[in-house]
Amino acid sequence: MSFLEINGGRNLYGSLSVQGSKNAVLPMMAAALLNKGITVIQNVPYILDVCHMIKILNALGCRVKYENGTLTMDASCLTSHELPWAWAGKMRSSIMILGALVGRCGEAVTYYPGGCSIGARPIDLHVEGLKKLGVTFDVEGDRIEARAARLVGACVDLPFPSVGATENVVLAAVLADGETCIRGAAREPEIVELCRMLRQMGACIDGVGSGILRIRGVKRLRDCCVSACGDRIVAATYLMAVAACGGEAMLTETPVSYMGASLDVMRRMGCRLKSEGDRVLVLSDGEPSPIPFIRTEPYPGFPTDVQSQLMATLCFSRGNSSIQETIFEGRFNTALELKKMGADIIIDNRLAVIHGAGNLHGALVEARDLRGGAALVIAGLAAEGKTHIDSCCHIFRGYAGIETDLRQLGADIRADYGQAAQQA
Ligand code: UD1
What we know:
The protein is an alpha+beta fold. Helix content is 32%, strand content 26%. It contains 15 helices and 23 strands. Strands 21-22-1-23 form a four-stranded mixed β-sheet. The protein has a four-stranded mixed β-sheet with strand order 2-14-16-15. The two termini are 15 Å apart. The model has no long low-confidence stretch (mean pLDDT 95). Bound molecules: uridine-diphosphate-N-acetylglucosamine. Residues 23, 26, 92-93, 119-126, 160, 162-165, 186, 190, 304-305, 327-328 line the site of uridine-diphosphate-N-acetylglucosamine. The site of uridine-diphosphate-N-acetylglucosamine has 23 residues, from α1, α5 and α6.
């Protein structure tokens, strides 16, 4: 069993550089399949999700080398169009391979994707979007077979700006015949980064960063070398750790321009922030102000991926806060673990009311999902006494060396990677 052990109650002081973005890198790795050549991505974090994606690409015949944060992928000759069940089921982003693989090979077999237990996570929007481009599906149990003799550009209207569905349709459309227009596209920074990369590879995409993407299919893509942006969710996690613990920290390689909503919340909690270029300095007295109401929204709204961390931080305020979760219904499970540490949180459907009493105490808790696990780390760092967090493989899926980063800020934290180390 992998775990983290934290002796809490310390202020955090120091500086650290923010890792590359998980959610940007994973679809970029899928995009490498579209290039019959070599694609290089720099600033790739060494996390379990990246390791799993490497295994999937390898199984398809793509040769992958990972060295010092640089991924070199050679997809000149693919040997299979079927994702291995063992890896496809382990991560949500395996579904992203579908659009890319059908775009490249005209066929793909995958399995219903796994990932965090934060809600239902259907894939109907992916499927409907790809169908518009001419993909036909055969689904048996969790096995999904997709085929398209020829992909043809079309109009795709997304009823909800799903990040994954937008990415999947973009990936399928870049090599399709004619023009694809995605209306109601998600505008998340990770989609902007994916489109930038695809453009560098020769794809024609207009409207990047807006809710309407226009993609004119091209015959082939070319080799490219790109660098992944910093991880806005990891950066927000560390900022909130400082908000809860008190102290002063400088984060470098932070994607500040992508973090408006999270930085705004930090200010509402009374933290002082100074940013210049990709650096953010945060100062906190360790007594965050309550936030009467906030809700999660698609970008540029407050991200669902930072909701759990905010909930943990608000436990250290004095007063009432409330958070409405509008994206993933299961994300309030973290409250059950925070309650073991003395938190007073009432959940009513999609609303969480946090009665902050200014402190929590250490406890034995369990990471139930990636961001919920990160929230428990924040709680453990700021709480009095020792916190032991079990099932940390969820946290290691997305945070590269979270204990090393936090020790740089003076935290007393120890990691045991257990089985997670064997999976990498
Ligand atoms: C991505 C991110 C995840 C983040 C989420 C929302 C990656 C690897 N993961 O996940 O960290 O929390 O965006 O910002 O980038 N939905 C459907 N049908 C679908 C697809 C989605 O109903 O076919 C619903 C989901 O159940 C959810 C909402 O749409 O309620 C958002 O999901 P989506 O934006 O697709 O998230 P992911 O791409 O899975």
